[in-house]
Design brief:
Elements: E1 4-7, H1 14-25, E2 28-31, H2 32-41, H3 45-54, H4 62-73, E3 82-85, H5 91-103, E4 110-115, H6 118-132, H7 135-138, H8 140-154, H9 156-162, E5 167-171, H10 176-188
The structure holds BIS(adenosine)-5'-tetraphosphate (B4P).
Length: about 190
C-alpha cells in the first residue's frame, strides 16, 4: 500500500492535484479541509466548531482534527493507498498519523511538497475566492493569516518527514498537467 502526504502552503495546488492523482492511482483521498467544509455545509456540531477557526484563517484544534481523520481513515479497510491532503498540518498531527498507520502495520511512503512563491499563492486564492464561496479565500487579511499560520505551525512538519528520509519537493508553478506528470513520476518511483 502506498500512503502519500501531499504538502504545501494554502493555494499550492494540493486539492487540484489530488483530484488527478486519485483518478490515476485509485487512492482514497482524505482532505481534512473538504471534510470540514462538508460538515459546515451540513451544519453539524463539528462544522460549527471548524467554521469558527477556518473563517479566521486559524487551524482547527489538533484533538478534533486527529479524531476526525482517524474515524475517516477507518472507513476504508480495503483501500489500495491513501492520499492525505492538508493533513498533517502540525507536528502533533504527524505523530498521530504515524501511530494510526503503525497500528495497522502501515506507514507513510513519502511526503511530496508543492513549492509556490507567496505572491502567486495570494493571487490564486483571491481568484478562487471570487467564485468558491469560501469566506477564507475572499479576504486578503484571512489569506495572509493562513499563510502566516502555515509558516509558524505547518512548515516544520516538513522537517519531521525529512528526518525519516521521506520528504521530496516539487515546483508547484506551471501548468496543472505538467505538475500532475511530475507528481505521478515521483509516486510511480516509490
Ligand atoms: P484546505 O481545504 O486544506 O485549503 P487550502 O490550503 O486552501 O488548499 P486547497 O487544496 O483547497 O487549494 P489548492 O491549493 O488546490 O484548508 C482550509 C482550512 O481548513 C485551513 O485554513 C484550516 O483552517 C482548516 N484545516 C484543514 N486541514 C486542517 C488540519 N489538518 N488541521 C487543522 N486545520 C485544518 O488550490 C488553490 C487555487 O489555486 C485553486 O483555485 C486552483 O485552481 C489554483 N491552482 C492550483 N494549481 C494551480 C496551478 N498549477 N497554476 C495556477 N493555479 C493553480
Amino acid at each position: 500500500m502506498k500512503n502519500i502526504v501531499l504538502f504545501g502552503p494554502p493555494g499550492a495546488g494540493k486539492g487540484t492535484q489530488s483530484a488527478y492523482l486519485v483518478d490515476k492511482f485509485g487512492f482514497v483521498h482524505l482532505s481534512t479541509g473538504d471534510i470540514f467544509r462538508y460538515n459546515i455545509k451540513n451544519q453539524t456540531e463539528l462544522g460549527t466548531l471548524a467554521k469558527s477557526y477556518m473563517d479566521q484563517g486559524q487551524l482547527v484544534p489538533d484533538s478534533v482534527t486527529i479524531d476526525m481523520l482517524k474515524a475517516e481513515w477507518g472507513k476504508y479497510p480495503d483501500a489500495v493507498g491513501f492520499l492525505f491532503d492538508g493533513f498533517p498540518r502540525t507536528e502533533a498531527q504527524a505523530l498521530a498519523l504515524d501511530e494510526i498507520l503503525a497500528e495497522a502495520g502501515q506507514s507513510i511512503a513519502a511526503m511530496i511538497g508543492l513549492e509556490v512563491p507567496e505572491e502567486e499563492l495570494l493571487a490564486r486564492l483571491l481568484e478562487r475566492g471570487k467564485t468558491s464561496g469560501r469566506p477564507d479565500d475572499a479576504n486578503p487579511e484571512v489569506i495572509g493569516q493562513r499563510i502566516a499560520v502555515y509558516h509558524r505551525e505547518t512548515a516544520p512538519v516538513q522537517g519531521y518527514y525529512e528526518a525519516q528520509g521521506k520528504y521530496m519537493a516539487l515546483s508547484g508553478v506551471g501548468s496543472i498537467e505538467s505538475i500532475t506528470a511530475s507528481l505521478s513520476e515521483k509516486i510511480q518511483a516509490l
